[in-house]
Design brief:
Layout lengths: L1 E7 L11 E4 L2 E5 L12 E11 L17 H7 L3 E4 L2 H6 L3 E8 L2 H7 L7 E7 L5 H7 L4 H6 L3 E7 L1
Antiparallel strand pairs: 1-4, 1-7, 2-3, 3-4, 4-6, 5-6, 7-8
Length: about 160
């Protein structure tokens, strides 16, 4: 699964009173998921990115169908969530996907912006800590069987 041609998307909405510019490409806004709980954050830092998927590697075949991975790993790695799906924009686009990302700490958005211009994909790894008995057992397994027993795993790579 790949995300390529990652760029900053400066949405027009960022020029409205609902957003306060914190620094280049980072804005502060009301948290769209806030429900009044005293323990929750009522504001969030946001930025928007555009990117392309590669259906030939199992990703969504259009911006209206954005793949879960590696997007889910990016959200986990940068403590972020999707705060706007830009559904209308994605429905109109043939290749470019648009997403707004939000985080409670501005530093997490700064780190997220570090993927701009990079290539994000899931890479297959083989467990190298198999003991001799497991190596023999895996010898006759298919890749699917090896994935099921944990001998193969995937990690999101940003290059």
């Amino acid at each position: 699964m790949l995300m390529k041609n990652i760029k900053v998307y400066d949405a027009e909405k960022y020029s409205t009173a609902d957003y306060t510019k914190v620094e280049e490409h980072i804005y502060k806004a009301n948290n769209p998921y806030y429900n009044g709980n005293v323990w929750e954050h009522d504001t969030v830092y946001v930025t928007s990115l555009s990117f392309e998927q590669e259906p030939e590697f199992g990703e969504g075949d259009s911006p209206a169908h954005i793949s879960q991975y590696p997007l889910e790993d990016i959200l986990d790695q940068f403590y972020a969530s999707v705060t706007d799906f830009y559904e209308e924009l994605n429905a109109q686009s043939r290749e470019t996907c648009y997403q707004e990302f939000g985080a409670f700490e501005v530093e997490d958005i700064r780190r997220l912006l570090g993927i701009v211009g990079k290539h994000v994909y899931e890479k297959k790894f083989y467990a190298d800590d198999l003991d001799k008995e497991d190596q023999v057992a895996c010898k006759d397994m298919t890749e699917e069987e090896m994935e099921e027993n944990g001998s193969i795993y995937y990690r999101t790579v940003i290059e």
